[in-house]
Write the structure tokens for this entry.
Amino acid sequence: MKSAIKVAAAGIAVLATVAALAGCSATPAANGKVSISVVSLIPGSKQAAFDAFDAQVKQFEKANPTITVKAEEYEWTGPTFAAQLAGGTLPDVFTIPFTDGKTLIENGQLADISSLVKALPYADKFNPNVLSAAQDGSGNIFGLPTAAYGSALHYNRALFTAAGLDPDKPPTTWDQVRTDAKKISEKTGQAGYMQMTQNNTGGWQLTTATYAHGGAVETTKGGKTTVSLDNPGTKKSLELLKAMRWEDNSLGSNFLYDWGSINQAFGAGQIGMYTSGSDIYTNLVQAQNLNPKDYGMTVVPMDGSKAGTLGGGTIAAVNVKATDAQKAAAVKWMDFYYMKKLTVKSAAVLDAKTLDASSQPVGVPALPIFDKATLDTSQGWIKSYINVPLDQMKGFTNGIYDQKPIGEPSAHTQELYGALDTVVQAVLTNKNADIDALLKQATTDVQAIVDAG
């Protein structure tokens, strides 16, 4: 999904204006200048974050005097994104999660930017497993992968301390997650652990837990996709949630969280632990006023030899309504804003310096868009500007490369996640919820959608 996105899955700013519609289809002026609209930050971000973004826009426009950039606040969610796409109100450059790439490409809803991307100096250095999220079956390119994440367990160090737990020793098993969550709830009155449940994020987070328990929500063989929501890994994950909810009372009292609202609650110190993309720290400090001293991140516990970590990321795409001149300008912007800081030392330093000057996060752990060596090199360039508490993220950075990455389900991903939302909500709000029956029905419903194409 989204994380941060990856990331991940929260509210979106509706851009339903005539100006926005015109911005996607306008032709460049006779003097050779062109204007493009681009996504900036999520609504509610701190002013310092917007200031940093504006500074980067000015840097880009100075280097590209024939291009004018108009920024739009934006945050992806499945339901509202579909409405914006259909209504033609998306900016010229927007971001989507990996899971939506294939469907949008097949539907002809993203601009083909193959020739523009192939002209970039690093075009042959992409991790093919990452770039494939923005390609069709023939290898044509419809976007640039800008961020990749692995799932992580995020925890509040202050709540750990208040509960008598060692914040430098986060849980390494699901049994420990349950035990620690119970202690946090009993000692602090806050939710020791929490699960998202709506806007498709409940299914996304449950799939993370399913993978961690060695399960698979769908399999594809010989071109045939079989939905398997009623697998042992999903059942075990739901049974754990049910026990924590009804036996331990460690999940709090709000069972209608999505990506944005759970981040807000975590930032406010109301949740001890939850899983999400590894890049969520930026949102927590930019938009949720999290005290960096309270933040901790470790890997999601693995259970069994088939267990793995759900991975995903973000694609920057170009509106299919954009003119050729706007497509060219859009790729230049994507190269400048998203990619150069990963591939060019001077750009990496300028980006880090600009963010640091506005007290924005620099050096948040991420999975490599290219390869680990390139990531390590770019991190070395900005070492003096890194301002995130890496010591509090060691559990993740030391352990993530030992975990098997597993991609998100590829067939009708959002519908699958939506069906699991309903299951999670039932388990958390009905003590007598029949997990087997719920998963069997959800499997039948999603299989019908998959079979219908």
About this structure: The chain has two domains: 18-149+313-381, 151-311+408-452. The chain is about 45% helix and 15% strand. The CA atoms of residues 180 and 344 lie 43 Å apart.
